[in-house]
Amino acid sequence: MGQHVRLWLSELWEWVEALLAGKSTPDESELDFHVAVTARAVVDAVVPETPELGDELGAVAVPGGLAIGMETFLVTFVDGLFQFGFPHVGTRGNLPLAVPMAEVLDVAADALVARGDNESEPDVERAVALFDAGDTSPRRVRRNAGAFATLSRRDRLRALGLLDEFELRVSPFGHGLFEFDAGLVGQLVVGFAEMIYYSEWDGYDDFSLPPSERTHPNDPAAVQGWRQTGYPGVADGYAALRGYVGADDSPLGAGETWTTLDERVDVVRESGTFRENEYDTTGYEEPYPE
Amino acid sequence: MVASHYDAVVVGAGGDGPVAAWKLAEAGRSVLLVEAGPFYGNERWPKPNESPGAESSSSVDDLSGALLDEQFTTRELEMIRKLVFGPADHERGFWLRKFPGDGAILQCAGVGGTTLHYTGCHPRAYPASVDEQPHWPIDYADLIPYYQEVEAMCEVTPAPVTAKEELFFRGAAAAGWDLLDGLNVTEPGYRPQPNAIRQPDPRLHVDAGYGGDFSYPDVEGDTLALGSIAGHPFPRGAPYEEKAKRASNISFVPAALRTGTVTVRPNAFVTAIETDSAGIDHPTATGVRFRDTWSGRVETVRSEVVVLAAGAIETPRLWLNADLPRNEWVGRGMTIHFGDNVMGLWDAADLESRIGQDTIDQFQGQDIAARFDYPGLGMLQTVGTAPGIGAILGFGSSASGFAFQNDPADAPWDTVGRLAGAELKRLLSGYRRMLQVLVVSDDRPHRRNGVTVAPGIEDEHGPIPLVNYEPSAGDRQRRDRLAEIAAEILREAGATHVHRSDSPPTALHVHSTMAMGKVVDEACEAFDVDRLFVADHSALANGVGGANPTNTGQALAARTAERILERYF
Ligand SMILES: Cc1cc2nc3c(=O)[nH]c(=O)nc-3n(C[C@H](O)[C@H](O)[C@H](O)COP(=O)(O)OP(=O)(O)OC[C@H]3O[C@@H](n4cnc5c(N)ncnc54)[C@H](O)[C@@H]3O)c2cc1C
Fold first, then answer.
1. What is the mean pLDDT of chain B?
2. What distances in angstroms separate CA B562 from CA A5, B21, B259, B557, one per listed residue?
3. What local confidence, expressed as pLDDT, does residue A171 receive?
4. Which candidate, B561, B441, B458, places its Cα nearest to that of B508?
5. Distance between CA B205 and CA B203 in Å, rounded?
6. Using CB atoms, which residue from A82, A92, A237 is nearest to B214?
7. Nearest CA in chain B to A287
8. What mean pLDDT comes out for the span B262-280?
9. Percentage helix, strand, coil, to 5, in chain A?
């Protein structure tokens, strides 16, 4: 009962707050807001702001994914990643995975805590701290934060480590139930999140435009992940040829030696060819027999 | 609509399907090449991800290098989104497969199939994997003439050396391994990749002081910029057939179209194999049914033979979803080259003394140009990636948790596991001084591994592929040994930090799910269905020893086309 009343009171309070501030009530559904809090918690754990790297690597290394709004894109990306195949249904028949993804992360967080494998106590103020002051009301964050967002960064990663043990159940458009190994969630929130962060994504004017209408400056100045790695952007070519591998008794390469790899093998100016060699497998032994 | 009858329908215009289509058409047969994904670089589809465009293409004049330049931006996220197995429409997500754990299957849709992603490495199988392992009913020698034919079509040559290859070769030589220079590999050693990528213009030598554009016709051949996984349209400005990477859309598709008897039908997902006598013990294939991925419209085409080339996941899925006889090996025995990543990080001064510059700059040179072979175990190859793909392949997943949870103690690597948070950011700040080595092991066919389908778990094309993969003890031992060798080579090359991912099973190479000898006979015709052939990597009897599989898949597809002609035309 208490839970119910608190929820109701806090909703009411927020409505009043919004009225007083002259804003219209937030139109985002609370479900989406839970996803948003969770996505921030994911981004904050996987590609965090790292002041501790500042001394070592310079100011460029400090900002993380939240500084470039990656959490919003992550949700859009996850919701559009797999299609279900009926273009006449909803958003081109894509499988909305962000909501179940957030739920699975909470289940994993609960399991971590239930096992006592968390290093720090969960604390809802961690979820509040994922937002800048003034972004949204702390009360609303507290109300919508799931277990995952209350964990420390390290514990969030530990919780991700448990995902393979769960099933993810998705029921798109009332069309039966998909069950996935929740490892898919781990793939989305770690692997894909890392790929997005270090990819060119940050530099687009608008990735949601059709591909032929997107513009990208191909400049590290516009892509935080490129600045943090030293990747210069895509290129049409490089004058980087050193030559070809060659050896005295081999047709592989020819011409002047550019550098020597060891007593027998060089990098030479010109390419040769592979040999169509005789082969004999009679002495073959299985290193690790089945 | 395409015609209602052809001599042959080939399902899938990926790595291998176009080879079979070309060979059949060279012999005068009419061929419909049906492809689920879009046709990039074709004037009949100027915006292939945004509108349905035309229906089919039958002329080599439709091909356009300028369109490829526009569509293949080589920006990694955009290109992954475009190329990975899914419908052409950019607003719709990938097609779904279920895969265990946090691994994944990486395949492409589109004319060219997964060779749109591939890095052009075109070695042959290890002879011992065909002649000494128990899986193959034919000899390695039977494949050689077809290898030669494919290697000529794909212009396979020794890959060029840039900084990252020099570093790897120095490490391999210092670790005591020999240089290999043969095409038929029976001993361990290192060598340049036999790559299906035209060699770079000699003017791109570091000493030549080249200051011009990297576009055609100023330069021809490869331009030594990373981009294979992201489509590789180099050199920019070149006509379609002058692109350096000889993916099947560049090598075999134009050759097939030039015969005048091939029609390519993209955006068409085959959902059924038609037979004359559904339900009986030994039916005969008579055609296919496909669904347009834009309109949803369904069409049926009849043919004298049906050739399945939808790749090692979709080919068995199609069989299992069709009303065909059960065979206990359909979909089973899948090999994926159970892989791993071992990464080295160098100090600037150590690089300077070894390769004369204080960065490796893995974004220069061909993506994968150096290799180490070990018949019986598999192979290693250096991989240059842009940082996003590098992160997801090398650091984003692990079977042993996050690196901070592991203490590798006296293992040959300093850290092991998945990376995230400050550890990830610190490591990737050294991106210009790091080099990843991909471990590719010779995993063996086990019946438990492969593709099944279940009613109810379906998309618009029927029950989706449910993929299972669990390596055996031997598979793990082979992979572990290769990872150790990789670490030794990186150390010998001077790396100061070595990281092992311990990747979960991830499928970049997928094979042997419709294996020769088990599901198909020596001509790759199904034992249980007449006039139904398989001409893709699913017909391989095993994982070809761990060598990159496309040369062998294409060689076998060329051989199969000849057998089809002998049997039925
Ligand atoms: C990043 C990456 C790098 C790689 N690098 C190399 C390399 O250097 N060397 C190498 O040898 N291999 C490499 N590979 C693997 C190689 O690309 C594949 O092994 C090869 O393309 C497989 O050929 P295939 O014909 O069996 O299948 P695919 O090339 O996958 O072709 C199957 C085609 O069938 C289509 N299709 C599927 N289902 C249907 C249907 N129902 N109806 C119609 N069409 C359908 C698909 O859209 C696809 O175009 C790489 C793979 C990846 C992911």
1. 96
2. 76, 11, 16, 9
3. 67
4. B441
5. 5
6. A237
7. B376
8. 91
9. 50, 10, 40
Q: For B211-222, what is each residue's pLDDT tens digit?
A: 999 999 999 999
Name every protein residue with a CB atom under 6 angstroms from any ligand 1 atom: B 11-17, 34-37, 106-107, 109-110, 113-115, 117-121, 229, 269-270, 309-312, 314, 318, 368, 508-509, 536-537, 548-550, 553
Which distant-in-sequence residues (6+ apart) come within 8 Å of A161 by Cβ?
A: A186, B401, B402, B405
Band of residue A284 on the pLDDT scale cut at 50, 70, 90: very high
Residue A60: CB atoms within 10 A of its CB come to: 14
Among B440, B550, B552, B556, the mutation site with the greatest number of ligand 1 atoms within 8 A of its Cβ is B550
- pTM for the model stands at 0.95
CA distance B188 to B174: 15
Beta-carbon contacts of A208 under 8 Å, excluding residues fewer than 6 positions away, are: A76
In this predicted structure, the answer to whether residue A115 has a pLDDT above a threshold of 90 is yes
Q: What is the pLDDT of residues B443-498, one digit of tens each?
A: 999 999 999 998 878 888 999 999 999 999 999 999 999 999 999 999 999 999 99
**H helices of A24-168, where?**
30-46, 54-57, 70-79, 98-114, 124-129, 138-144, 153-160
H helices of B84-240, where?
A: 127-131, 140-154, 163-174
What is the ipTM metric for this complex?
0.96
Q: What is the Cα–Cα distance from B433 to A230, expressed in whole angstroms? A: 10
Cβ neighbors of A218 (< 8 A, separation 6 or more) are A200, A203, A233, A234, B75
The pLDDT score that the predictor gives to residue A94 is 83
Residue nearest to atom 31 of ligand 1 (CA): B14
